Amino acid sequence: MKIYKLYSILSPGGSMRCWTLVYGLSSCVHNLSTAAYNEVLGHLDETLKGLCCSGRLLEAVAILCTTKLQVYPQTYSLLLQECIFRKEFKTGRTVHAQMIIVGFLPNIYLNTKLLILYAKAGDLETAQVIFDRLPSKSLVSYNVMISGYVQKGLDEVGLSLYNKMRQKGLTADQFTFSSIFRACASLARLEQGKQAHGVMIKSKIRENVVVNSSLMDMYFKCSNPSDGQRVFDKSLDKNVITWTSLISGYGQLGRAFEVIEIFHKMIDKGFRPNYVTFLAVLCACSHGGLVNEGWGYFSSMKRDYGIKPRGKHFAAMVDLLGRAGRVKEAYDFVQSSSCEDHSVIWGALLGACRMHGDMELLKIAAKKFFELDPENAGKYVVLSNAYAAFGSWVNVAEVRGLMRELRVKKEPGYSWIEVQTEVHVFYMGDNCHKHTEQTYEMIKKITVVIRDPPIVPDPDLTGVNK
Asked: Which of 281, 296, 302, 389 has its CA 20 to 30 A from that of 150?
């Protein structure tokens, strides 16, 4: 048997006739001499690399699994990298399974590749197993796990890993801090975010757009706009991402006029806004009640910048019109939009109907809202609350009954606050906190102050004008 004849059919330009020989290869290859086996392995290695480089990843993995042979570590690395790059996570799992079946033991480098694969796929359970089994954990492996947990919304776990990493003596880099600032922003951990910022400054890490944007986002979400603005002002390498982060930051705080001012300043500086920038501006207009300005920016997206509005842009416009009491106009806008199949738009309309007491439109919006995403537990609560606001208790009972029937469960709402580095969590209807009584007493006092208008002295009575 000639080895070249056997493997010439595995070349990237080969035809389907290769499969007739490949299927028989696994049964005969073990009878080859060492030299012949190495020659076969070399040809297989070249073939797999060629297929990968020509974009034929699935063919390469299919051949790998059919031959049932161990290939070189560099080839496994290339296959896994292609799976990660193309987001073919299922195919990546197949490569890993083939390693296990043929008894191939990956080195630390390949284990790190597998770690990245599973973390990006969202399979943190498997990623954690691989991470725990690493004989020595590098900064890269820690970064992968921290980023994976933060992206999955498990910010506490990500911060805990960061602390462990520092205890191990590893120095964080820009990728670490980007994830940590994002976690602190989600948890509103201002003090912990400031500490991480201080560590980053001491580490003399070179300025990075992504890190600066994450840092700005953290300060704004922790209601510290002055430090967020300071980060922006000191940033040497400004681009549309940093400008958009600044715009989003002020938008989150409801400071619509600052948002518009910064937006035009960005354009004057020669930066071209993207779809995220426009979304931030539209949301700010919504919170500021700037209907005419919102319409202007929405029209400008496609007219001036060629940006096609997405579902969230339409939802922001519905919210803008709804907050202004123009519910019928919002409904007409939804019907004429190209994104009426996006549930977020109908959710915005539902909120507007609830706010302004339009029961007729609420029923229409609720029907579409559920048709587009019936398994979302939060939607049942939104609809139930909307019906309750109208005193329609029969409809409330129907929605709650449907939730029980479908076994839909909604996680209880909660809020938290950080006081002197200690985080206090308050669940809805939960009275277990040690300061519950004092907290509710303070809420009552604050509510009285908010509801009772301040007494404005009459100038004629006080003699101010005399």
From this structure: 281
